[in-house]
Specification:
5-stranded mixed β-sheet; binds calcium ion; 6-stranded mixed β-sheet; alpha/beta; elongated; 2 domains
Length: 275
């Protein structure tokens, strides 16, 4: 598969052989795992995702059921995994979810492994005070939910709550930094008020260490006129709902690069500004 989006809800909907995803594959089968290769077959059946592939899975409903993708032989992973938590699922008890498994075949060859990892994992719909992180075993991909907010990356000046995520300070600091300003020109008239406020050197260090997280459209670069502009727009419209496509598209208009959807980009921004 090389283009477009394929939504799939039948457990054997991809047939009996190997499958390579170079586009967008969206699972809709929380009741049954999507199986790559029937277990009774004896030839290898692998699932491969290339660097430009996007795999979308859900954790959904009041019981937090989740999509699964099982390969009879190998999983070879790259590209992007998008996990959407929705449908009344409340994650607050340290649950873990095995989203993908290799080596699920009973036939020969019976040894399959998981190889590679996703370059980007985007989680949409988590409460601000919880995190969902990905880990890998020799044969599987696991998401584990835990307490603890992600870091307040977008409180760039480390100001007090009144200006915690403020377009006129944090937003301006980010844009100036990405445009190359350092020292006094970086911080001039753009720092808020707080007991542990950062100076220019500390702001530069904070942004240098979090730069990859600020690549909110996931194209591999953190740029002023794409990531910086979209983050600034989100700081200006913090209450626009992820479910409002018009508002989401206003945030990303003429700025986004890469393959993420508008809501995925804004979700990636929101992760950086927990309450
Ligand atoms: Ca701030
Ligand atoms: Ca980017």
């Amino acid at each position: 598969m090389t283009d477009g989006t394929l939504r799939i809800s039948h457990p054997t909907g991809l047939g009996l052989g190997s499958w390579t995803n170079r586009a967008t594959l969206e699972l809709r089968s929380a009741s049954f795992p999507l199986v790559i290769g029937a277990t009774a077959e004896r030839s290898p059946a692998n699932f491969t995702q290339s660097a430009n592939g996007v795999l979308k899975m859900r954790i959904t409903g009041s019981n937090c059921e989740h999509d699964r993708l099982n390969a009879r032989t190998n999983l070879a992973l790259a590209g992007t995994l998008v996990v959407n938590v929705s449908g009344g699922c409340r994650l607050n008890s340290g649950k873990s979810f095995t989203l993908m498994s290799a080596n699920m075949g009973a036939g020969v060859p019976s040894v399959g492994t998981r190889n590679g990892t996703f370059a980007n994992v985007v989680v949409i719909g988590m409460p601000a005070a919880r995190t969902l992180s990905v880990s890998y075993t020799a044969t599987s991909v696991v998401l584990t939910e835990a307490a603890g907010a992600s870091a307040r990356v977008l409180n760039i000046d480390n100001s007090d709550p009144a200006t915690i995520y403020d377009p006129a300070t944090d937003g301006v600091l980010l844009l100036r930094y990405l445009l190359g300003y350092r020292g006094l020109p970086l911080v001039n008239s753009a720092v808020g008020i707080g007991t542990d406020i950062r100076n220019a050197t500390q702001i530069e260090a904070h942004l240098a260490t979090t730069l990859s997280l600020l690549d909110v459209d996931g194209d591999g670069q953190t740029l002023a006129m794409s990531d910086g502009v979209m983050i600034l727009r989100r700081l200006l419209t913090p209450n626009a709902a992820l479910s409002d496509p018009v508002a989401m598209s206003a945030i990303t208009a003429n700025a986004k690069r890469g393959v993420r959807t508008d809501a995925e980009i804004v979700s990636a921004i929101d992760v950086l500004k927990p309450n």
